[in-house]
Amino acid sequence: MVSPELSQFQTSPMAKHSSRSKAASFLSDGFLFVGGATVALLVVWALWSFINPSLSSNPSFSTTVGDPKTIISSESEDCAQGSDDRSDPTFYDDPKLSYSIGQTIKNWDEKRREWLNHHPSFAAGAGDRILVVTGSQPSPCKNPIGDHLLLRFFKNKVDYCRIHGYDIFYNNVLLHPKMHSYWAKLPVVRAAMVAHPEAEWIWWVDSDAAFTDMDFKLPLERYRDHNLVIHGWAHLIYEKKSWTGLNAGVFLIRNCQWSLDFMEVWASMGPQTPNYDKWGQTLRSTFKDKIFPESDDQTGLAYLILKGKGKWADKIYLEGEYYFEGYWSEIVGTLDNITDKYVGIEKGERRLRRRHAEKVSERYSALREPYLKEAGSGSGSWRRPFITHFTGCQPCSGDHNQMYAGESCWDGMQRALNFADNQVLRNYGFVHTDLLDSSSVSPLPFDFPA
Amino acid sequence: MVSPELSQFQTSPMAKHSSRSKAASFLSDGFLFVGGATVALLVVWALWSFINPSLSSNPSFSTTVGDPKTIISSESEDCAQGSDDRSDPTFYDDPKLSYSIGQTIKNWDEKRREWLNHHPSFAAGAGDRILVVTGSQPSPCKNPIGDHLLLRFFKNKVDYCRIHGYDIFYNNVLLHPKMHSYWAKLPVVRAAMVAHPEAEWIWWVDSDAAFTDMDFKLPLERYRDHNLVIHGWAHLIYEKKSWTGLNAGVFLIRNCQWSLDFMEVWASMGPQTPNYDKWGQTLRSTFKDKIFPESDDQTGLAYLILKGKGKWADKIYLEGEYYFEGYWSEIVGTLDNITDKYVGIEKGERRLRRRHAEKVSERYSALREPYLKEAGSGSGSWRRPFITHFTGCQPCSGDHNQMYAGESCWDGMQRALNFADNQVLRNYGFVHTDLLDSSSVSPLPFDFPA
């Protein structure tokens, strides 16, 4: 079991190790990468929107789903040297508005839109803007190498965010004293929404998850009609009634009224409520494979999907076509083969192995994309897995699920982190030649892997 | 002593604890904050430069010092949808150009300028662009709480960079196998220069240094005629010949030919050279207060300043007017008083305590600036110290200097990190009420501290 004191921010209440029988499915070109994409997306997009303001009112970037009002209204066309917030009141001047979960916010979509109208430099591109949020407990880990692993997982996330121009916030305090362990992320996401009205999406990524494809970007266009995206499989939730039908350790949530309301309902199953024990019983009797009695965030989310059809489920996207987050145990053994496949592609195409500034990485990723058409995605594919999640490994507490030898967890983390690091280090001229050797790198020869 | 294996990235070879008698000096308004500053500097600056391209050729943002050629030439006026690098060759296509220290690069200023000309979206604002670089050893720390502290120090740096729109790169591999401990940063800075031609400055910040003023920004205008900025005092180097006349744990270095050449000369005193022992003797005989025999980066830098007048020293700025990096032991005891002073200012001025989005923090910092005129800066002042450096504490190895009780190091780090975190958390609605309690926060009341 996970000790709440020791893993206040880890999602997985237990190892999730069901064998997930997903058909490998193929990603279409359209959403994977923006063809001929611009680089350093935020800056360039801001520039582009500025000279071409009609894009700002493109509904695919501007409508908020689940609420009749648009967040990014066409007023953002008045983008130029417009107003300034020094005197204009915004929602921040409302004494009743709170950053804390449990305190209802009303009319958030209008409030955000108004803030954006007062800050036109943030209105351009706001429909795509992502803030990554992650975190861990305030105190040192029980596992002697736990904090070292957390440091490397965090470095990995910062690398991904730097490459794509995303902001990242690492939190290591409990914002609600009773919402510990896997419940702790909800107050953080709530506070981040209020603190970041410029961001359309908050992307929670657990501390024990690593980006293992530094090039891949979320296909936001696919989620335009949804407000919450999680990795999951409908049949496992609706038919098998399994609490492992989804994983709540990585989720993308729109910064909108629907999400604030949803998080209140979700949080109402948590340890800070008088109904916590009752919810534990309800969840356990609904999802028969849940073996521990406490109400947990993941089963609670599955329950809301199962029972809340229409109200909640319609706006939740269960992503199963790629590794929105993937189960490490089925991934780490495939990394060497994936490396070989990518090397093979680059051997055949000089422009793919051309050295370049880190800032223009997205452009080179887009060039590689046509060569990955046959790779598939998700389980069984040889595309790099997007996010590898060490579910059940508990790096901080060290209390990994007994079905794994501890070594397999730690080795797996090293392999995944070095696999990711190689994609980063390449742009600094170096490479780990052995994924199990974190210490050693070699200079990468010119024109590698010609 | 520091074990090189255990502290491959820590600067301080020993505790630096000279009592540094700097006169408190006052910062003028001009450079501290850009008055009426824009927010989210990169995006807004890019926008502004785009509509007002003549700014890009303003010499204060565009000339490279120490080299007759300008890095950001006025060609960047052709900023609009210009060329694209897919076919144009750049320095990256030169098989002889290396990311590794020890491999000379020639004509870097022209090469960088050419790259910027090929990438006009990065040319605007390039003269001010900063990449923060930091790092630590590849393996877990010997000190049981070492990695936890490194994680928190890194989070602190990421917070600062997010607030100001800077990129940050954390490295935890040895890029040159023999350049361990305090020498390890030089190969990292070299690689970062080549990987980031869009950045004018590389800002190395040791893993054991924390930003303790989240608002303060480097007064770059002051450094326009220099290529390297370090915290130091000329009289301690030239007259006292003390190796603690500067601190090499934090430095700002311009991404230019002078810097590449300087780093080769600096690195030539390192453990990867046959002259390492000889340099140890030379440095020790020159700086009599150096008590350990090995050649170290800091004394080497002091030596180059002392002996290299004209060639090197003229382009090195010894910053002593504010805490470019400050000695923790003289800082941590002042933090409570500083908090009280700032609270006092905000009690008297409603607009300074107004809640706001994190993204517009720079605007509110600028509003506070006039109230800090009397604060002074550096030693003895009540302005927040910019960077607090835990010189001699060795968080990773735990081998702190025997002159401190270990507790004073760890308590000092908690106090400094929570002092900084309070400046961040405020924009998320929370506050640590006790700087020694990292775990607990309270919601910040509306209009605090009215």
From TrEMBL, chains A, B:
Keywords: Glycoprotein, Glycosyltransferase, Golgi apparatus, Membrane, Signal-anchor, Transferase, Transmembrane, Transmembrane helix
Nucleus keyword on record: no
Cellular localisation: Golgi apparatus membrane
InterPro entries membership: Glyco_trans_34, Nucleotide-diphossugar_trans
GO cellular component: endosome; Golgi membrane; trans-Golgi network
One annotated GO molecular function: xyloglucan 6-xylosyltransferase activity
Transmembrane segments: 26-48
Topology within the bilayer: Single-pass type II membrane protein
Entry EC no(s): 2.4.2.39
Family: Belongs to the glycosyltransferase 34 family.
PANTHER family with a match to the protein in the record: GLYCOSYLTRANSFERASE 7-RELATED, XYLOGLUCAN 6-XYLOSYLTRANSFERASE 5-RELATED-RELATED
Name of the molecule in the record: Putative glycosyltransferase 7
